[in-house]
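User: I want to check something. If I give you two sequences, will you return the structure for each one separately, not as a complex?

Assistant: Yes, each is folded on its own. Here is the first sequence with its structure:
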Amino acid sequence: MDQNLKTGADVLNDGALNHGTAFTREQRDKLGLRGLLPWATSNQSTQVTRVLGNLRRKTFAIERYILLNALHDRNQRLFYRVLIDHVDEIMPIIYTPTVGQACKEFAHIFRQSRGFYITPDDRGQIQDMLANWPHKDVRVIVITDGERILGLGDLGANGMGIPIGKLDLYTALAGIPPDQCMPVMLDVGTSNQALRDDPLYLGYPSGRLTGDAYDSLVDEFIEAVQRTFPKAMVQFEDFLTPNAYKLLHRYRDRILSFNDDIQGTAAVALAGIHAATRITGDRFSALRVMFLGAGSAATGIGDLLTQALIADGLAEAEARRRLWFVDVAGLVVEGRTDLMPHNEPYAHAHAPADFLTALREIKPHVLIGATGHAGTFTREVIETMAANHERPVVFALSNPTSKAECTAQQAYTWSRGKVVFASGSPFPAIGLGDGKRRRPGQGNNAYIFPGIGLGVIGCEPSRISDAMFLAAARALAEAVSVDDLAEVSLYPPLAQIRAVSLAIAVAVAEQAYAEAVAGLPRPADLRAHLAGLMYVPDYQA
């Protein structure tokens, strides 16, 4: 049915069309809604107040998550208005950290399907299945196979909560129209036996598909997308490190795609490091950076940092020498035979060392945690960083909050206020009794990927390059104000994020035009062109 021809209860049951009690008298007559709604008419602001009141009465975050998802299904525009206007309060509910719990409980709280599912049983039929998707101008696809959801591990089909949440942020934070967004679950089974034993589990009831069978299924999906949605950008999300790198390298030069855990995380971390140098006074090209964790997120940051250091004048070998990694076996050094290919460029000449010994000997200016394990930045670690440098920089990037390497309070207290801190999950502002308010910056990929998507839609490039992520990082760093730095915050307030996303989109599109990969002619006013594409969730007459 053409949604423009819907009337009566069909309108109220379509989340994209429903305004609820905000339908005017005239609209109620025109659409056959008289008698189907209470007498009073509300404006959207009143509806927001009602939603917030109901939301705040809920005791648990997961209850708020369920309420907001039900609102999305019932009234899309109101959902996005609540999220945009109250992003500080709502984003932690619909995404990190609550989305982690929502994924763990996904099958138990399931209400209505919002995404697209592919299983091994669908081999040979994916092209036909895509015709079932109700929207025909898909521009952004977020796909996961659920094998490494946040720091929670293999959650199988329950991982669908991640693509759903990411795409909600694309819409709210950068104005990508919701009907251009498509969440996809590559449900190839799970190695999580507890899930397979759960009678309510909704995923493919098998161990994980691997090897050539896995690769060919992904190939079939990508080829089907290229034929069905030729302008779509594909974002790979929460794949286990070997598959994350394999898929990135397999497709990055063939289709419009990127891996958010590798490249998005890298850009937001690079932006934070740039901002931190404005506090510490250190020269960017002179920094030594140490990573605890050597998976896709950490090495992705290392790879983009390498490019940034080269752009700052260093030779590649010297740039890599500035970056040190510690994994479960200790410092990544030459001679180790247990390294994965993405770690080998960072294996430097140095005696084997454990984490603390490496900290004391290498004395990094910046310490980045991407471990997925809580408490790995102990008091001794923070005190060592504070002994090595007057203003050490510490990023505890693992999320959800329960997986953070340390809390903001711990970092500030153990360093006696010296640490410049950022985290992957939100922490509240803190006062230490010295008269200064510290607002921990949240190094969340949400600062980067929505703007990337808007820039891509606005110029339709054939590929997404590393230089575009460097441009995005620079734009984000430039958005950090003097007032932000006074609160030792390395990222702008979330309330400004739509403006930040627009600035990033401009930077990304400018880079695409500079590389001559843009598919659309450059508009006279690029910023106005991109701003004009942004979805605004006001009610239409």
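And separately, the second sequence with its own structure:
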Amino acid sequence: MFMIMTAQEIRRAYLEFLSDKQHKIIPRAQLVPKDDPTTLFTGSGMQPLLPYLLGQDHPNGSRLVDSQTCLRAQDIEEVGDNRHTTFFEMLGNWSLGDYFKQEQINWLWQFLTEVIGLDPKRIYVSCYSGSETEGIDKDKESAEIWSSIFSAAGIEAKQVEIGSCENGSKIGEQGGRIFFYEDKNWWSRSGSAKTMPDGEPGGPDTELFYLFPSVKHTSDYGEKCHVNCDCGRYIELGNCVFMEYLKQSRGFVKLPRRNVDYGGGLERIAAAAIDDPDVYSISLMRPIIDVIERLSNKSYATHTTAMRVITDHARAATFLAVDGVVPSNKEQGYVMRRLIRRAIRFAFELGIEQNFIEEVTNSVISIYKEDYPEVAEKHDQIIETLIKEEKIFRQTLRKGLKQIDRLGRSGTLSGQDIFTLYDTFGFPLELSVEEAFSRGLELHDDWRDEFNQSMAEQRERSHTASKGAFKGGLGGSGLIHKKYHTATHLLYKALRETLGDGVIQHGSNITEERLRFDFSYPKKLSPEQIKKIEDIVNMQISNDLKVSWAEYTTDKAINELGALGAFGDRYGDSVKVYSMTEEGANKPYSLEVCGGPHVDRTSELAEGGKRFKIIKEESSSSGIRRIRAVLV
């Protein structure tokens, strides 16, 4: 008889299980990728390890394991059912040219059935059916390994050819245990084997599903149910990718080093462990729902969707704040703002008017602080960032909802109406559309074109109005520019020494008159903090640090050397890294990715008796502070 494990216990057991099999436990990567300009967020456990899957040697060896926090903003509209979340954890293990299918499949079965105690009779799997046109064989090897495992457990393992998911909804399970799919069981960054470009690696995968008999299939999801059906009767618990092929102009060839990439959703595995298809019932989420029930005096059973959305979005926003993101109107900050505001919107629907963000976020922090110490360390910063956004949006929300009711009296909304809500009342585009649908309002057929046209006209007006209003720019290569570039590096380091490592650069601007530096911090700096920052910078100027640079691969610069970079910057394969080092020191005082230009020694900033002076500290946007400083 197995003891039912919490999600936290499953996470620890998984890391221990693979550690006992000579896997090195590696820390999670941040939700904002440091070396992948193609995506806003870390969306899988594989993503931060892609360079090593493509051939680079990992400093921790050929066997790795972790639990990676992930965010998939594209799933935001799906949140509300029993299994979709934007934020989730992916349990992952990797073999970089080491073990392969036999070990991976058997270990996965062993962990799920012997460590966690899942019912073997409710486990079903899928394998790759092969591609005749691409010359890739059917993955009979994985299927035979599964057959042996099921046979040893006394389970009949009939193999069924499915092909496509569309065909699966027509033919159903047919009493099968092992199912063969085409594109669904092939992995590459660019999709199916047919669409892969030359030079792209990929391979077949085998996926594991858990059956929840209590969930009934309906025709809304197709005529018949199969393991890849969206009805929720089967939930995927993990995916083993066997990366062994390379696409070339003449077709596919075998990679010299075969890799294994396993990813399993912690939340889904935890739901299976408690035999509940609702992932929101697990120990990582139910305590948050308990807080929402108390604050709203309403039950989860009657307000399920709203409480699921709030719970998911609160977790996502909390970890974004942990990783230095602040609400804004661009990129990661925009997604964070949308998550917070959607959560507040649903809280408003539940009648929660006060103490919402603080209480819900404290619940999230309490859940994760033991396994992720950085969550506890940044408690105050997280709370302040999210509360500030809540205060801003609650006023916007009341005004916006009133305006939607007024503008929608005719039963329709135009693109111009939605632009007015956005431009005049600060109401986000997506929220206006959601509210229109929830109120049964129709949108004009060309509403998006109308909205875009209004936006274009507004940008043109703003551009005309600001033309010639500002002098200066991004800088030049003269001596004063070099001095201010160098001072900016010293300022960044001094800010982190004074305010903590949660400070992240969000932009800078150099002119001949001053430097400007934007950074993440939730509140106004005190006079004492400003003086301390000035003193640190001036001390490092007087220490006559030597300024030098070297070029490194981006991965080594950021992940191994720990060089700082500006938030949101996009880097190529290699970067220039500037270091500022005191004579005789073992390591540099400042190490930062930058294109330059800089002076040769920091003492040059003090020529003519000048000192570094902060002349203004102010808010730039929500959660972002701005410093202007000079050498005088």
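Because they were folded independently, the notes below concern the second chain alone. Residues 509 and 516 are 5 Å apart (CA to CA). The first strand starts at residue 24 and ends at 25.
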